[in-house]
Amino acid sequence: VLYGLVLGLVAVETYSSHDEVDATVAREAAVLGTIYRDIAGYPEPVRAELREQVRRYCDFVVNVAFPAQARREIP
Known about the structure:
The chain is an all-alpha fold.
């Protein structure tokens, strides 16, 4: 019974952590989208450079940082 209770609590905590991660990722994606759209108000060539930096950041997070975190490494 005790092991069942502990297993249940671990499952609930894992699910709760997963929800927090989903919310954090959704917030960051929304912020990046807003930044990308707001950059449209800047004149060229600043606009192109800022958009490129946002693209590079997204590429780094998706292709470098997330896989490194999955391996328990800090990029």
